[in-house]
Amino acid sequence: MASLLSRVSCAAEKLALRSPLKVVSAVSPACVSVNQKRGLAVHEHVSMSLLKDAGVPVPKFGVANNAAEAKQIALDIDSNDLVVKAQVLAGGRGKGHFAGGAKGGVRLVYSPEEVEEASAGMIGDFLITKQTGAEGRICNTVMVTERKYTRKEFYIAFMNERSFNGPVCIASSEGGVNIEEVAEKNPDAIVKFPIDVVKGLDMAGAKEIATAIGINAKKVDEVAQILLNLYDLFLTKDASMVEINPFAEDSNGNFVCLDAKLKFDDNAEFRQKAVFDQRDWSQEDQREVEAANFNLNYIALDGDIGCMVNGAGLAMATMDIINLHGGSPANFLDVGGGATADQVKEAFKIITSDPKVNALLVNIFGGIMRCDVIAEGIIAAARELNLMTPIVVRLQGTMVDEAKVLIASAGLKILPVNDLEEAARLAVKLSKIVEIAKEAHVSIKFGAGPDGGIVPL
In terms of Cα–Cα distance, which of 190, 198, 146, 139 is closest to 169? Predict the structure, then answer.
């Protein structure tokens, strides 16, 4: 499990911009498990709207699709202390830069005209941060908000956590900074409050949290009510996380949520349609979006060996053995136990759309999943896509003999291997051959050798 975490950390950041599991693991010795799921992350302006509707204090704000709209929002806010925030699902926006040259995805400005200018440099351009990679991520909208001057900043989050067997509130007296850094450098500044999922959070518990992070005694009741509103939002919207960073006391002594990240479990989509309708698909890896459309579990990685496996455990083992033999997986793809031939074909399309993929390794254990169905999908994909990428196939289980007959009679350059270790070793070798050919700008094809195996032609 630890090996999986180290391999997919980059991919995890694409799906979850700042994982609360890191905080929990830093403050608790309990084991943190990884579950295969897709979570909805929404833009900051969506989070702020949900907070406002829940009775949680937020600054005045508006969202704009163009510079003229942004200027009008600034005029409506009627303040000369304003902030323009690029609505991009990535951390580190303030330190990022745009492909067109504009600096910073969070800009402090002092007039409607400056709001208009800043917005023009953001909207329609790609914001590049440490989390987006060199290609950046498109900014389609900006949020214009009033600037608040703070006396003190805190961190508050509600999340579901297996190690607590239910909801937990993570809070800190040190907000406005990366909470993972606080957990590492000053773990005593972070407090955790498990919540009985049946009883819920009551006023006494909310006051205990407020007091523990150093809220002034005169303001404890006010902050406790905000905490209750946040927890109610967490429950009623089926959120997997509600994170406020910073939760601040402004110069007038009022408490306000200055930044928020809300995430929702996709399993709740059927009863949270209003929330899920605000999903911004342009912010997600298009291969992952396409995989979701076909009910495939796909995460893009940085390697060069495409993997198609059924079952999360077998997928992790497959990636491990590829690494063991000196290779690097290009993706995590689980077709599940009930995939059809069409789904397998679409899985191949998604995997081979990655230009880094030099070889394909299919590892299927046929229990519920029939091997002949997988074989039909592989053959259809190879023919339709005219695949030149070498394919190593290891099938075991239900209808495996029928699957081998289908592959053998297809007349395609597909290499069946019975042993997983041998399959992984072969996939790594083929990938390295293809990589060398690419570097030398040499076209390479694979054909059948005298022993029936695949060899370079």
Answer: 190
CA nearest to 159, candidates 5, 21, 28, 9: 21
User: Do residues 320 and 372 make contact, with C-beta atoms less than 8 angstroms apart?
Assistant: no
Enter the tokens of residue 67: 């510079």
Catalytic: 155? yes
Find the catalytic residue in 44, 69, 116, 155. 155
Kindly name the residue from 44, 161, 243, 376 that is annotated as catalytic: 243
CA atoms within 13 A on the CB side of 394: 22
Rounded to whole angstroms, the Cα distance separating 65 from 50 reads 20
DSSP run (H or E) holding 205: helix 203-212
- Quote the DSSP letter at residue 103: B
Tell me the sheet residues that pair with 300: 331
Whether 243 is catalytic is: yes
* Bridge partners, 97 (sequence order): 103, 128
Model pLDDT for residues 181-196, shown as the tens digit of each residue: 888 888 888 999 999 9
- pTM value? 0.69
Handedness of CA 226, 147, 13, 333 (dihedral sign): positive
For 178-233, how does the pLDDT look when each residue is reduced to its tens digit (9 = 90+)? 888 888 888 888 999 999 989 999 999 999 999 999 999 999 999 999 999 999 99
CA dihedral 452→453→456→457, nearest 10 degrees, is 10
**Pure H helices in 18-128:** 20-27, 44-53, 67-77, 112-122
Q: Comparing C-alpha atoms, which of 378, 441, 372, 437 is closest to residue 413?
A: 378
* 293 contacts 56 by C-beta, under 8 angstroms: no
The string of pLDDT tens digits covering residues 286-306 is 787 888 788 888 888 889 999
**DSSP string for residues in 270-331:** GG-HHHHTT--GGGS-HHHHHHHHTT-EEEE-SSSEEEEESSHHHHHHHHHHHHHTT--BSE
Residue 325: alpha-carbon gap to chain centroid: 28
